[in-house]
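ok so i was messing around last nite and threw this chain in just to see what happens. nothing serious, just curious
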Amino acid sequence: MFLRVFIFLCFFTNISLQAQNILLDEEPQIKAMMSKFTTEGQMEDQIRGWRIQIMTTDDRRKMEASRVKFGRVYPDMNVTWEHVRPYYKVKVGAWEEKRSLQAFLLELKRDFPSAIPVMDDVKKTELVN
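result:
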């Protein structure tokens, strides 16, 4: 008996909620915070994303050679490098999700066997589609 009443109430409540417009009464501080959060999110030009690191070396000449080699094969893809003593790191591409770079990583490993995915700060304009 209890189960039938419960099911009836759930069904009736569902129908009555669908027929009504639900009005939310937000606190002004909450509304202001959400507006600020949205605005800042739209203004943010960088996200935490992924790149493929094709080389790590302590030899600047090797780093330059790998940059040039990559640029010849993939002229439309961005290449960045950084020097974190004592190593030079060459990174390519920019992806929002790691799974998006997997196919390209497999292709790259033919010419750059030590290529690995790494997290990095990525400008939204750099993202590979």
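not much to say yet. The helical segments are 2-19, 28-43, 60-73, 98-108.
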